[in-house]
Fold:
Amino acid sequence: MGWMSRRRKTSPISETAALETIAGTPSDQAQGGASADAGPPWTGRALLLPAVPAATTAPGLAARAADAARTVFDIELDFTPGSLDQVDEILNGFREPGSDRMAEFIFIFGCYLGEVMVRNADYVWVDTPADLARHLGTLTVHHPGTGANANPITKAFKRVDYGEPDNLASFYRVFTAEDPHLD
Structure:
């Protein structure tokens, strides 16, 4: 995956903003281990992201995922539920190097999934309360009407580690009760 080292020097992720280092959060990979055809799962190492993950920065991180999809993969993501199949394809390409090596990219694509839920299904980004963050992650989406909480970032990591059974369209369908393929 030679583009990774080249992109790291010139990507919008590193050019536009000073990188913040964060530790901990989205993944529960340690509980079950990745499937055999995937590279090493995320170890929980600190991530270099263009902003500290928070409810206020999540939409910007999602926009960076759309920029990366356009720049690296020549894929236009439009923040609709139907675009989640394209994100699944991108994340599937990260399986070989594994989620540890691709963690920063997986994180922003998880933010993209969350932003699709925010824009299309009345969810809002929330900084998860400390008592729940250990179980849900520090950045989640919440539906005020139903009380549902979802962690799209962890789902993106699971998609890379476990493959197709953890696809994003199904996640969207479960948390919104609508089929993303019908828009």
